[in-house]
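step: validate -> pass
step: tokenize input -> pass
step: predict -> running
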Amino acid sequence: MRISELLRLVIINLSQNKFKVILTSVGIIVGSATIMMVLAIGTGGKLEVAEQFKNLNAGAIDISYESNAMAFGGRGGGGGMPGGGMPGGMPNGGGMRGGMQGGGMPSMNGFFGSWGGGGDRTNQEKIVLSTEDMEDLAVFVPDVADVTISYTTTTEVEGGELESAGSYTIAGVKNNYMTMSNLSMAAGEFLTSENDENKEKYCVLGYSIAKEIFGSIYAAYDDVVYIDARPYVVSGVLEEMGSVSSGISPDTAIFIPYETGVKYITGQNISPTITVIAADVNRVDTVIENVKTVLADSYANAEFTISDAGTKMEAASKSNDTLQLLLIAMAVIVFIVGGIGIMNVLFVSVKERTNEIGILKALGCSKRDILLEFLFEACFMSFIGSILGVLVAFGITPVVESFSVRVELSTLGALLSLAFGVITGTIFGFYPAYKASSLIPVVALNQE
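step: predict -> pass
step: emit ->
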């Protein structure tokens, strides 16, 4: 029997049992939709992780100190303000800032002992990381591309279209913060080293805050905002960044020179974060150990919180991959259940059509023809189920997205769903088709 005749026979059989075909395909519909959604959610998760860490790289290392901890020694006076740290990001550039080129660490004991910053001081003080610590890390830690220090606080802001003062996040940063955090300007320019050294009252607004206070980023540029009742000139506005996984979102912060903030807003009541960029991401662990050595010579018995962006990114990626694997496992189980459903229906169909099979064999149809007929029926049912599953995936996407889950549907996902469906139908439909093709004509014709 020709393939065209077999296909015509298959279409006739399926069209006469439309409802049964739909019910049989339910498992495949669910499996196909699940596969497509799994791939879409997995892709969306990866893009979400990439966006959240777009202002960091694997070489970024954040060093902070919990203000409620006490230790002997320490150059920075004053109590720390909880929750003030703002991790930086990461540039790909920036040369070694005077750091030693060798792989070993020099001994700090003699150096720090010479100017009284070592751990032999007996008075007990709260530790506040300082610009001096930042400079020490830049000089004495090898394989460092760049270093910065920053802090955050919250204070009253007025100006622009605001009818009353509002509380906003203020970030005190150095001039290299923008490049280290991979930020870019929508208007104007970022803070300069001169602004910081002269303690000038300039600020840079995040994208969302600029629109909130002034209505637009262009109206904000070169205007004035009042931070803690003092006027600050808006030297620039950042481009929109979206959500970030570390620190605060640049969109919702107002950046001011580090020393300006210390002088006019916070005093010494800060808990800064020093961000170090490792020149080689493969030597992050070594850089961390060297950082600990330098800080130990400066602050005896102090325990600092040190975290690297690479570990955070890896943990987030692993979490996303684990979720995707679980969803894939669920989809495979659904496909297996759907395949078993197709197998059961085909077994029933073979039983019901035993006489038909006997007649076809008596008319000269070969074992191969009967096998292909039932196998085509299984493939058609699973293919129809796969198509319906893809349509279901498109339909439920808005519902899934309403739960703040990012979904990125793709043509590849749809094709894979169709392929999985057809493969499932072929595998689970083969044995019933084989049983049908193996029937003896005389026995099949006498079957009631």
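step: describe -> Residues 66-303 form one domain.
step: cleanup -> pass
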